[in-house]
Specification:
By secondary structure, this protein is mainly beta. 5% of the residues lie in helices and 47% in strands. The strands form three sheets. It has a five-stranded antiparallel sheet, with no helix packed on it. Strands 3-4 form a two-stranded antiparallel sheet. The model has no long low-confidence stretch (mean pLDDT 84).
Length: 128
Amino acid sequence: MCLPTVTKGTPLPLTPDWKATFSLDYTLQRQFLDASPFIRFDYWYTGESVNSLAGFESITFGNRSNKLDPYDIADFSTGLESDKWSLTFSVENIWDERADQFINNRWGSPRISINQPRTFGLTFKYSF
């Protein structure tokens, strides 16, 4: 059996051309309920990538390599934090971005894995 070769310069699968992150975190100096109010914003950018090595999957399984479009996701959280307890409200994936993270062409029909949709959370922690 002859294995296919990959030519120099072929993009690596699931490796975006660019990735970037940006975060803002601010804690207010004032106290509320004996706790410090805070806010946090996180942003992620993931550039274009491919789901498999170009040429390899098409030779082995008869499918072409698929391009995965770039996407950006942001999270936001706010809450109160003290020495003994914390309360946080969060929104993950603020814009409800539906990003294709992997396209599996094998086994008959394509299956697409996407990121987590917009999610709201409320977390309470207490230290004993």
